[in-house]
Amino acid sequence: MWRKVLFTVIFLCFLALMALFGYALKRDPSLVTSPLIGKPVPDFSLPLLSDPNRTIGKPDLLGTPYLLNVWASWCAACRTEHPLLVQLARQNLVPIHGLNYRDTREDAQSWLERYGNPYDVVAFDEKGALGLDLGVYGAPETFLVDRNNVIVYKQVGPITEKVWVDVLYPKLVELQKPGQ
Asked: pTM of the full predicted structure?
């Protein structure tokens, strides 16, 4: 009798584990939620990539919705999304601010010279302090931020055409409406 009960318990545990495994396989790993959604961008003051004698901080970004793109010259996936960022910058639909993450100034500047610079401004986060405050897992990550510096959405991984059309652009349109 106890063997039947034990077998039934083991079988039910196995089924539960298989269901959990199946659910995990269907989830999109880029849909990592952030505890910062709905909260302000952390306070920061970082040197500009282009000029180490000038800084940029949170108050400098107030007033209009923007994308904050975390990138690095060592990041292969950043290279994948970069042409789309350049295209979006040419269309002038939204300011794109860069956060150069755990990189060297020379490598980052060379990378932008080679592939183009879609950024209105680039903060140089050499040690990754702001990245850590933002909960960055790795580059690239992009934050959609409203005019009051509140994080609305976090994209983990490269921005693709599909992500832009299906997710980011509709959210941006909502943010750009009067009274938002």
From this structure: 0.82
Rounded distance between C-alpha atoms, residue 160 and residue 83, angstroms: 10
Q: Which two tokens stand for residue 44?
A: 């920061």
42-80 residues labelled b (16+ CB within 10 A) or e (exposed): eebebbebeeeeeebeeeebeeebbbbbbbbbebeebee
70 neighbors 151 (Cβ within 8 angstroms): no
Q: How does pLDDT run across 67-121, given as a tens digit for each residue?
A: 999 999 999 999 999 999 999 999 999 999 999 999 999 999 999 999 999 999 9
DSSP alpha helix (H) spans, the chain:
2-26, 76-91, 105-115, 129-133, 161-163, 169-176
